[in-house]
What we know:
alpha/beta, 6-stranded mixed sheet, 6 strands, globular
Amino acid sequence: MLVRIRFCFGADLMVIVIVGVAGCGKSTVGKQLAAQLGWIFLEGDDLHPTANIEKLRRGVPLSDGDRIPWLKAIRDIIRKQINQRGNAVIACSALKKSYRRMLQVSREVKFVYLKASIPLIEARLKKRRRHFMNPALIQTQFDTLEEPKKAFWIDAGLPPGEIANLIRNGLVMYPRERT
């Protein structure tokens, strides 16, 4: 079981961004974690422009240029959550360091990386029925991936509930100071 903690969570305001390749469980884990914490969950895939979704369906990898507007939309939501003092869990592949830098708008943004193997992802994507990600793009996901150095790492092969619990147990919440 891979669980690598690179830093300890600890804040009264937090936006957790769950990152990793397609099929690693970002959305499933994110929804469970948000429900456990009573936080909102945001699905990054919902913010993809239609053109991106069509490319992915056809098996055409997205370029950095395709991803930038999508990442900016997610960044805007993160900023809004922080400005409104709202905790959130967001599922977003954020495969490259530059993408995560774009999302790291403040110290309240924390990344959780679901580390997966190609065989695990192949098996999962073959079972998917209503998702736009073409399984032919698995290798391009891994080729693009720059594993995060500043993240909470968890083995994506674990059951989603166990992953959500591991993330929760990694959180150290302090009450807000009254001013």
